[in-house]
Amino acid sequence: MLTRERFAYAILAADELVAVSNTIKFRYDDGRTFLNWKIGEDVDNAVWISVFLILAVTINMFPVKVRRAHFNFNEPFTSLNC
Question: What range defines the domain where residue 71 resides?
């Protein structure tokens, strides 16, 4: 049975994947300053969503002991928290 909490986590996971794909496609132009990621312009959002979904599933396949020891140590260097 799908509870409210499970539904909320499913929506949150999808939202985070879309957010990371939009972060990669970031572009800023105010007339004086122009910032963009070249690789983000040429690749579709669906590719980035797939890449990060596969990455998240792969990390979650490791045992908890390995994830806690290795991935939490490197998290501040790799996270895109806003």
Answer: 4-78
Assessment of whether the complete model's pTM goes beyond 0.70: no
Number of separate domains in the chain: 1
Residue 41: which of 59, 58, 24 has the closest Cα? 24
What token pair was written down for 43? 């690749």
pLDDT tens per residue, range 20-78:
888 888 888 888 888 887 777 788 888 988 998 898 888 778 776 665 655 555 555 55
Q: Which pLDDT score, from 0 to 100, does residue 50 have?
A: 92
